[in-house]
Amino acid sequence: MNAQNAALAYRQASFENAPPIKIVRLLYEGAIRYIDRAEQLLTDGEQPSWTYWVGRADAIVEELRLSLDSSHGEELCRELDRLYDYVQNRLSLAVKDKQAARLDEARRVLARLLEGWSQVELTSSKAS
After folding, report:
1. Which of left, alpha, beta for 45 (phi over 0: left; psi -120 to 50: alpha)?
2. What CATH number is associated with residue 107?
């Protein structure tokens, strides 16, 4: 096994064995990273490759949306769904209008949610 395959296997194993809260945080980080990449490519005029990264960010947000479980708080899930809908709308408008500002709007919401989930993760790890 070469070093690249070993690193990939390690990352996959650490993701599969991670607590759910960490997985949520990693998903937010990934979506934000993809939005940043798309925004940079859009700014650089790299058409249409920037839309690929928007699509990847959108797929993560959709996965977060699909994983909402109202048994853990119906109102919280409703609000998260509303925010995810807003983010997906901003991503869609960014592609339609080719505007980096729309990407930034989506990024800001996800970054704020990431802050909250990171705080929850920190609090829960201290309680354990």
Report:
1. left
2. 1.20.120.340
Give the mean model confidence (pLDDT) for residues 15-38.
Answer: 90
C-alpha dist (Å) from residue 73 to 52, 54, 55, 76? 34, 29, 29, 5
Amino acid at 51: T
Q: Give the CB-side neighbour count of residue 13, counting CA atoms within 13 A.
A: 6
Report DSSP letters for 23-78, one per residue: HHHHHHHHHHHHHHHHHHHHHTT-TTHHHHHHHHHHHHHHHHHHT--GGG-HHHHH
Residue span of the structural domain in which 43 resides: 3-127
| pTM for the predicted model, two decimal places | 0.84
Chain-centroid distance of CA 101 in Å reads 18
pLDDT at site 7: 58
